[in-house]
Write a structure and sequence with these properties.
four-stranded antiparallel β-sheet; five-stranded antiparallel β-sheet; 14 strands; alpha+beta
Length: 297
């Protein structure tokens, strides 16, 4: 086996400014790392070009916590999946995110992997990413020009490729508007029996119910294309309609008409994925609607 040259230096900066200065000093020869559960494995396999240094952003002061700011739930880039799964604020007001982070890998992976890393990795079926996309999440990007919030959905470029430059920029925080009264969310993952590989299909939903009708809905899916997908045709079917099984089935049909499901010899056929969407998307929408009717979660 051909030896892979790995990094020579590993930094744990205490501030965003320090982290950005290190990246600038290495001029493209250093890259950001979070939990490293995907990056380190892929680097050993030679899937990333060698760099001189890794810049670990999980120990930056203040970015290892979950908080409420300006009407949003804010998640620092150092927050692990395990912390998200157990957080009362997210369980109550971002249920689909807690559910999606809870099925990533095994306990060891969830204990070190971060949601920011999941987002930055930009896989079409990153479960945490799917949950955050359903909630209408945003990400904060920092570079030498400053910090700015951008919609999560515009940050994806291609499979495993983000618009965030990992050699010059940092995903510092993530946020979403919490579900309120008459709102609910849900997530479901279809996976192979061993459960530790990428999902066959991952879906999330957020709905708001007014007088028995769907006032607003968001549906996220993956892998159904090169990037995590917001199923807008299905959302249009739901918005303004009744919260019924028939309407949820129509939404599943609309979602399937707007995507090209992946055909995989080893993971799942296109036909099987289609059946899973028809089976589980209505279930997720029903679950989210029941949570909305129960007062929101």
């Amino acid at each position: 086996m051909k030896a892979v040259r790995r990094w020579q230096h590993y930094y744990t900066p205490a501030t965003v400014e320090e982290a950005l200065d290190i990246l600038e000093r290495y001029d493209g020869q250093a890259r950001v790392v979070g939990g490293g559960t995907d990056l380190l494995v892929e680097t050993r396999r030679g899937l990333h070009r060698p760099v001189e240094a890794m810049v670990d952003v999980t120990r930056i002061d203040g970015l290892d916590r979950i908080s409420e700011e300006d009407g949003c739930i804010v998640i620092g880039c150092g927050v692990t999946h395990s912390k998200i799964v157990k957080d009362p604020l997210i369980i109550a007001h971002g249920t689909c995110l807690a559910e999606s982070c809870g099925v990533i890998g095994g306990p060891q992976v969830r204990n070190v992997g971060t949601l920011a890393g999941n987002v930055a990795h930009a896989l079409p079926a990153g479960d945490g990413t799917i949950g955050l996309l359903a909630l209408g999440g945003e990400i904060e990007v920092a570079d030498q020009a400053g910090m700015r919030w951008i919609p999560l959905g515009v940050s994806f470029k291609a499979p495993g490729k983000s618009f965030v430059n990992r050699f010059t920029q940092i995903v510092t925080r993530l946020r979403f508007r919490p579900t309120g009264p008459n709102e609910g969310s849900a997530h479901h993952r279809v996976m192979r029996p061993q459960g530790l590989c990428l999902p066959i299909i991952s879906m999330g939903a957020r709905v708001r119910i007014d007088d028995g009708r769907i006032a607003d809905a968001r549906i996220s899916m993956g892998p159904v294309g090169p990037v995590p997908y917001l199923a807008e045709p299905a959302m249009e079917v739901l918005n303004g309609g009744p919260a019924t099984q028939a309407q949820f089935d129509k939404a599943a049909d609309a979602a399937l008409e707007s995507v090209e499901l992946r055909q995989s010899k080893y993971r799942a056929s296109r036909g099987y994925r289609e059946q899973m969407v028809r089976t589980w998307l209505p279930v997720i929408l029903e679950r989210a609607s029941q949570r909305a009717a129960a007062g929101g979660s």
